[in-house]
Design a protein that fits this description.
alpha/beta; Rossmann fold; 6 helices
């Protein structure tokens, strides 16, 4: 099984939504043998997902109400096959803190084939429900794009 780690700042909005969206899609596709988790660079362990993030995914039929944040640790990086961050800053911070992770850390949009001009997914924290929906749309589109790669196809 492929293990994917999504990373953002606090692990209550973007990376937690990415984890839930990824696992929902993977569960629906019998050909996939992959599981996602998430963590945050500045996360406080055990915090609930943001209410607007929960509501945004609820509208998509995904329940992430049980999510609890976790701060990134080297073990999370080590046990993951690929680490997908929400921004270039997150990617650079991870590579500085965990240099042995080079080659498996990418921004989500970079990994999904973005041309490099928009490799950041903006933080919706403190923004309107519409901004959360927009972030979830971007995340879901990128995850759908990467689902077809050889990395995620079961052997």
């Amino acid at each position: 099984m492929k293990k994917i780690l999504f990373v953002c700042t606090g692990n209550t909005c973007r990376s937690s939504m990415a984890e839930a969206i990824f696992n929902n899609i993977a569960q629906e596709k019998a050909t996939l043998d992959a599981k996602a988790k998430s963590a945050g660079i500045e996360a406080i362990d055990g915090m609930p997902a943001n209410d607007k993030a929960i509501e945004t995914l609820k509208h998509r039929g995904i329940d992430m109400s049980a999510h609890k944040s976790r701060k990134i640790k080297s073990a999370h990086i080590d046990e993951s096959d690929i680490v997908l961050t929400m921004t270039r800053l997150h990617k650079n911070q991870l590579l500085a803190a965990f240099p042995t992770a080079k080659g498996k850390v990418f921004t989500l949009l970079e990994y999904a084939g973005d041309d490099g001009s928009t490799t950041d997914i903006a933080d919706p924290y403190g923004q309107s429900a519409e901004i959360y929906e927009r972030s979830a749309d971007i995340i879901e589109k990128a995850i759908t794009q990467i689902m077809g790669t050889v990395l995620f196809i079961a052997k």
